[in-house]
Predict the 3D structure of the following.
Amino acid sequence: MGEITRFGVSLPSELIGAFDEKIKAMGYENRSKAIADLIRNSMVESAWKSGKGEVVGVVTLVYDHHTSDVVNKLLELQHEAKIDIYSTMHIHLDHHNCLEILAIKGPPAKIKSLADAAKSVRGVKHIGLTITINMK
Ligand code: NI
């Protein structure tokens, strides 16, 4: 962590009261960490919505590997996605279902395209997408 800057903030008492109650329930020990997390969440959201630059993240897929061609289609999508796929993990959940986890980096629009395209493949039952950025 870099240098720490202290600053004063003026807020309505009711607002800070509600904030303190909320962050206490969430397990925060002080406002500083809670505010830093809010700022970082806002930066991730902006990066995702702006569509500019690169984000990193995780895609989770659950699919029935017995469905015709699903494995090949998902592999093809990954090869053509034009994003960095750092790592993939495949877990055989049961006789039918597979869980695949992809660690990825790339432009938001390309990541969204991959997720949308994978969602529409027959046999894919669920897709999760968790996005973050390389934090300051
Ligand atoms: Ni499997």
About this structure: The pocket of nickel (II) ion is lined by residues 65, 90, 92, 98 (CB under 6 Å). The helical segments are 13-25, 31-50, 70-80, 108-119. The first strand starts at residue 55 and ends at 64. Strands lie at 55-64, 84-92, 97-106, 124-132.
